[in-house]
Amino acid sequence: MTLTSLIQKNKIFMSLFFIWLIACSALLLVINKGDETLFCELNRNKFLDIFFSFWTNTGEGLFFVAFTIILSMYKFRYAILSIIIFSASGLFGQFLKKIIYGPVPRPSKFFENIQKIKGVDGVEMHSVFSFPSGHTITAFALFTFIAIISPNKYGFFWLIFAVLTAFSRIYLCQHFLIDTFAGSAIGTIFCITFWIWASNWKWLQNEKLNRGFLTKK
């Protein structure tokens, strides 16, 4: 598989992803860092608090692990690819977060001596290692993966689900827009890169890997 063929097969998801990148880039040019946090602080409601507190879990490593287990029920090849993509993107994200950029302040720390940030009740606000957003990396890797293995017509939903996870990190005062923007790019690029790369791995094309624990094909 080539990059061109993958994009052609997933036109809806990829088109919307590029629109997302362009929109984020434009927004980053016109707002100040922290404006997005203050916007969320001024527009909170109980429904959104509950929804985003729940939805943000789609960016947890455990969610990806559960997804991989489900894949293994139907096709071992997909489960193996899932493990590779999640591990590679996650480790790269942690390398950037902990080694390259270090303890970049999160919203709670950023506004510490400027304005009190309340956040959402019951959600602990972390203070450092803001860049990039690990949850967003995981979510975009996950939903890009799902988009690739599912019909093109569902691409709109997968992209929206990924964006909701990214926005949840901002809404919950865990990250800034730049963090989720970078996370979305990393997660998607890693998923696409390893998917194309793995298509040339002969051992992964073994017919036995086309079956899963629940299938005998």
Short description:
The protein has 217 residues and is mostly helical. It contains ten helices and no strands.
List the defining traits of the structure above.
217 residues; mainly alpha; Vanadium-containing Chloroperoxidase, domain 1; 0% strand
Secondary structure layout:
Blueprint: H1 3-9, H2 11-30, H3 35-42, H4 46-55, H5 61-74, H6 76-100, H7 107-110, H8 134-149, H9 155-171, H10 177-198
Helix pairs in contact: 2-9, 2-10, 4-9, 5-6, 6-8, 6-10, 8-9, 8-10, 9-10
Q: How many structural domains in the coordinates?
A: 1
Query: How many angstroms separate the termini?
Result: 23 Å
How many H/I helices? 10
Overall pLDDT, averaged?
Answer: 94
Element order: H for helix, E for strand: HHHHHHHHHH
**DSSP, total strands:** 0
CATH class category: Mainly Alpha
**Beta-strand content:** under 5%
- Rg (CA only): 18 Å
Q: Multimeric state of these chains?
A: single chain
Give the overall shape, derived from the CA principal axes: elongated
> Would you tell me which CATH topology applies?
Vanadium-containing Chloroperoxidase, domain 1
Low-confidence stretches: none
Sheet bearing the most strands, described? none
Q: Would you identify the CATH architecture? A: Up-down Bundle
Classification by helices and strands = mainly alpha
**Helix content, binned percent:** 55-70%
